[in-house]
Amino acid sequence: MDRIIQMILNKLLGRLVNTAVNKGVDYAARRGKSPAQMTAADHDQARQAKEMTKRARQAAKLARRLR
């Protein structure tokens, strides 16, 4: 029973951490500005930062598979 509870808690904590990391990356990409305050250039830069983060995650996932 303890293992089942531990598995459930690990899944929930994993989702929580992923959500927090995604929110943090989004905040950093926007550099603390709200979407209404951002210019077109700011939006482009935030989009590029999100894409770069996505590519970095994919590379890390690939590196873990190759190990």
Describe this structure in words.
By secondary structure, the chain is mainly alpha-helical. The chain has one domain. Helices cover 84% and strands 0% of the residues. It contains 2 helices and no strands. It is flat. The relative contact order is 0.08.
Write a short abstract of this structure:
The protein has 67 residues and is mainly alpha-helical. Helix content is 84%, strand content 0%.
Provide the descriptors you would attach to this structure in a database record:
67 residues; mainly alpha; 2 helices
User: Strand portion, in percent?
Assistant: under 5%
Total number of domains: 1
The number of helices is 2
Distance between the termini: 32 Å
Roughly what is the average pLDDT, rounded to an integer?
90
Backbone CA Rg = 17 Å
Apparent shape: flat
Share of residues in helices: over 70%
Q: Helices and strands, in N-to-C order?
A: HH
Q: What structural class do the secondary elements suggest?
A: mainly alpha
Number of strands: 0
Low-confidence stretches: none
Biggest sheet features: none
Strand-helix topology:
Layout (H helix, E strand, L loop, with lengths): L1 H29 L9 H27 L1
Helix pairs in contact: 1-2
